[in-house]
Structures
1.
Amino acid sequence: MKWIAIRMLTGDRVKFAGLVFGVVFSTLLITQQLTIFVNLLLRGAAAVHEVPSADIWVMDPAGRTPDVTVPLPATSLQRVRGVAGVAWAAPLMRAGASVRTPDGALEPVTVVGVDDATLTGLPRTVQLGRRAALREPDAVFIDAMGARRLFGTERGALDQRLELNDRRAVVRGIVDSEPTFTNSVMLYTRYANALEFLPGSRNRLSFILVQAQAGANPFAVARQITAATGLRARVAGDFAQDGIDYIIDNTGIPINFGITVALGVIVGIAIVGLTFSLFIRDNIRQFGALKAIGVTNGTIRQMVAAQSALVALIGYGLGLALAIGFLELGRIYSDAFKGFYTPWQIPLIAAVMVACMILLTGLIALRQVLRTEPAEVFR
Amino acid sequence: MSPQLAVRVSGVTKDFAFGEERLRVLHGIDVSVRAGELTYLVGESGSGKTTLISIMAGILFPSAGAVEVFGTDLYTLSDRDLVRFRLATIGFIFQQYNLIPSLTAAENAAVPLIAAGTPREVAVAQARELLHRLNIGTQCDKLPRQLSGGQQQRVAIGRALIHAPRLVVCDEPTAALDAGSGRRVMDLLRDVALAADRAVIVVTHDNRIFDLADRILAMEDGRITHDGKHMPKDH
Ligand SMILES: Nc1ncnc2c1ncn2[C@@H]1O[C@H](COP(=O)(O)OP(=O)(O)OP(=O)(O)O)[C@@H](O)[C@H]1O
Ligand SMILES: [Mg+2]
């Protein structure tokens, strides 16, 4: 009897399409919006992920995230290096500045000053240029996206001059950096250079990156740093989470995406529910006839379940394919989607939501069928 | 030897509730339908024909009384057994055919067999054979909307007869057909559905086919007021 149920459903092209559309719509919206949401949140942790060799980030007690910094006195570095369990400690500066582009416009940038000796803090992948070129005077590396934004192409950025806070800088390399939440242009330079580029008070050290000695527990080392120096010390994983939490707490992003996802579910339920009810109403005499002939309620349940399952499977599959397709297109055509990916939990969440949706609408439809008295087909 | 009893209705009443009020539609009906006969149930609109045939066919519970079909007391069966009994023993022909629009004629006719668990190919092959006997063998692969009303009615008859039920009930089977088609449908029913141990009950308004009955039961206001081979004079 299941094939009869499927044929009843697919034979009604318009309603079948409507049902599948409802599920596709919800799946697409849920998957796509959750993907963007999660990836935007992950950008709060980009700066931490970019320096995988650092176990611990040390900052001013008032510091909160990689993007909300409070300067430290330069002497802090030596004090941290003196704490037991610290293998090495390197300075890192992250500060806002502005550059004058070749066509004269001012563009806000984030300047990252990395350790002069080890270049700790520079992204791993240098796409164009040599890593050692950062040691040249006035050298800066720019992130690939920023290079395209300021100079049109990555190659076109190489060896270009920039006015960074009215000082001369030369682009010597293009790096692949993880986009941050603000998506600003990233300029990497040596710490000593950064001090030149960013004049001001003496205290301009943003973070001290620490690697714990082999075998030492990073959490214990972090506690010891705090105890010895009074500075805030966060293990990398926690600090990455701090960056994400900051976005959650301080932006409307979770609410906005939450509303969109909820709308996706509600509109999906409305479309699928109404179409399913219409389909049942159109076929109620056929269902009634089947019941009179001697089809049991159990079989009727299986029939409606088969119809629901078919709609759910096709709609979910198409919706997921569309969501992934859109994301791929976005990645090809826009830097805004750089690094975006769909964690496996998201299709799972979408599947659960679609399943609930179909269960709800299917049960309502089933109730209509089960309530039909077989005697009504003689009227 | 007296003919076998197909249906025995004893003391059946049926009340319908209209809010607080209850309306009695059948008033203690006692009647039997014999196997081997084509029995008509006639009467004015609202006299209770559909209600009575529904109760006889096991799809509507009476308010009081009992119905036996070939010896089985229908309304003492569990819901499940009643459904099974209908599937095995009763064939239904509806005025509006109620065919499934997206199934072919042969597939529609095969539905009761499939519901009873016969494999699809076997059931459809059997349905084709039956549709040949019903003179619409060439229409087997068409959808209901591609058939005329008379052809659809034959498919519906095929569906009612495919599993060789011993009792066939029809509500106004000829109402939507022209006179000639209506008579042919009744002839077909007699040929295919009637046998010494099988019975056909037809509810009808259609005086064009009254002469084809073996027995006519007339109803008025929820009571049977006439029982005979011919229509009473005043009708
Ligand atoms: N489900 C129901 N609820 C309430 N009243 C009903 C119901 N079914 C039938 N009736 C009433 O029972 C009476 C008999 O109805 P029934 O359908 O049996 O008549 P009928 O003889 O078949 O009429 P027709 O020739 O018009 O089909 C009518 O007054 C009708 O209004
Ligand atoms: Mg009627």
2.
Amino acid sequence: MTSLHSNDGAQTLTARQAGLVGCHSCGRVHPMGTPRCSRCGAALHSRMPGSLQKVWAWLFAGIVVYVPANIYPMLLTTSFGATTENTIMGGAVELMHHGSYGVALIVFVASVLIPVGKFLAIGYLALVVDHGSRLGGRLRRGQDLHRRQRLFEVVEFIGRWSMIDVFVVAILSALVQLDFAATINPGIAAVSFSLSVAFTMLAALSFDPRLIWDAEQDLT
Amino acid sequence: MTRIVMLAATALVLMVAAVFFPFLELSAGGMVRQSSLLDAVLAFSSGLLLPLTFAVAALIIVLPVLRLASILYALAPMALGWHSARHGVAAFRLAEALRPWAMAEIFIVGVAVALVKVAGLARLGIGPAFWTFAALVLVTVLNDTYMCRLTVWKTLEERRRP
Ligand SMILES: [Zn+2]
């Protein structure tokens, strides 16, 4: 971490205020102005340049491709000549009808709850960081910043798990090729859903969590 | 350090086994279909879905292998008490950058969900590669838990070639 926290949250000194810059890759601290980390060779930035623009761009792209992912079919099941199309939600609902509530819940959480929650969380973080001083009026305590840091860590950790449904489709399509009896083929939504996951992961990776702590100077 | 190297080497061997042994077996109405991990990857290989094939192959096989290999390359010389390898620092940085994109553990949950979905349709057999892959996931997770990144970076710095 690049900032030294005191637990009461009253006064913290960031690396930047101390004239230092921390390496985002290995954590080594250097004097401000050092171009490359002497330990791991990564480029040093006190704050990642253009972080927020990248976050907004990736987030927007992720939301845009998430729409067709929900409209178009994810799975095409052909059984005895009849083809049924299943969307993401349709697949979860069908699992519920089969009585597999636990698995239906996993699919629902991974394909709907996590992506949507991620859009909201990244959007919220980028927004409060972007308009720190204006929205900061509501910011009373340092704990709010800790909460934002925690939110970011959760988003970063959990986002990749949305890929579950794409893998399910891949396995089903490989496995269920029983000619006439049943055939499962992937639908186009699998592509746009994977893109959506990748884009939001890139959005989270572009976000520089150190920006969260810059709001601290507005705390009084 | 030695433990991380051992775990990474184990995971790499398991991955090779998982790719080549039969993964799952499905039988219904007298027909039997066996699929390997590669079949699962190639499921998207028609038309517009082709790019997805490469993505899935990368996420569940290529990137995990690349990551394990770079961990081994960076850490094995130091575990043996030598200087760090020539580009060991770059290799470990690559391994760290790949961490979010290596999705073997997510794939195994996907397999579990798929098994439940298919259960009503046909009888399922689980091949040796399934267990190998599951073991691989377990070893990778253990490895990530044991590995203290700060210690690795510090050791890489101390053992640098003069
Ligand atoms: Zn560094």
